[in-house]
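Field reference: sequence -> structure
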Amino acid sequence: MDGLWGEMVDVKIGAEELEVWYGRKRVERMPRLRGQDGHRVDYRHIIDWLVRKPGAFENYRYKEDLFPTTRFRMAYDSLRQANPLQANRDYVGLLYLAAKESETVVNEALRRLLEEESPISLEAVRRIVQSGEKLCPPREVNVQAVDLAHYDELLGAGEVSDGLQG
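Structure field:
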């Protein structure tokens, strides 16, 4: 929804989600929140403001919403431990990189640094993201076939009730 500040938009409210339309184009879809005091902040919507005022991140009311994955939270904690005075600026830089490049790629770069126990820094993540290398090779998953005869044995032994008996 970049660039729509001050513009008139239509919001279609569905049972489970909201859609934001500008002209004849849907520009955003988000889950509908229920109950009082519900909120959802997408960092992409405020990142330009945060970059201009990174110090505001520290006391931002909805700060917890600005950790899109657990790895982002771990990165922030690591940044605070390494350099508390620079942590907010660097973390906002990570969010900016995720918004402009790819959240998935930044998340994978963080995964790599965390797994390698390498120091987390904005520059280290930026280098990995800009290298263009494939970060996450497909994982091979082997699922063994289920032997359905075990279920037949249970049914034959009378250990499973169909719920109709008293």
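Note: The chain is about 40% helix and 10% strand.
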